[in-house]
Amino acid sequence: MTAAKQKIECVNRFIDLANEMKNEGKSLELISSGFMTACSLYSTYVVTGNDGALMDSGVEKMAALFKEELANVQQAKIEQARREGRDVPAATS
């Protein structure tokens, strides 16, 4: 399996888990916040191990990576909507 397919599979598992939590009655905001915290913890672990912590420069690098990933997702959603002839409602919060 290619790395891209493995990534999609991993993402889909996270989305499935988020949907399970939503179906249990948890708010979307709580789920999103929980995933962001989990992402922060796991990303720190990947870089520094269990006992380490990121310095300011590491936090900035991780924030830049998240920003880039977020922008890629938004661009993909816009392109898909255009292919389907739909407008994309924009949210600022």
Structural class: mainly alpha
| Poorly predicted regions | none
Oligomer: single chain
Count of structural domains: 2
Order of secondary-structure elements? HHH
Overall average pLDDT: 94
Distance between the termini: 36 Å
SS field, number of helical segments: 3
Radius of gyration: 16 Å
Number of strands: 0
Name the overall outline. Answer: globular
Relative helix content: over 70%
β-strand amount: under 5%
Outline the structure in words.
The protein is mostly helical and 93 residues long. It folds into two domains: 1-52; 54-86. It is built from three helices and no strands. The protein has helices spanning 3-23, 28-48, 56-83. The radius of gyration is 16 Å and the shape is globular.
Topology record:
Elements: H1 3-23, H2 28-48, H3 56-83
What structural keywords apply?
93 residues, mainly alpha
In short:
By secondary structure, this protein is mainly α. The protein has helices at residues 3-23, 28-48, 56-83. It has two domains: 1-52; 54-86.
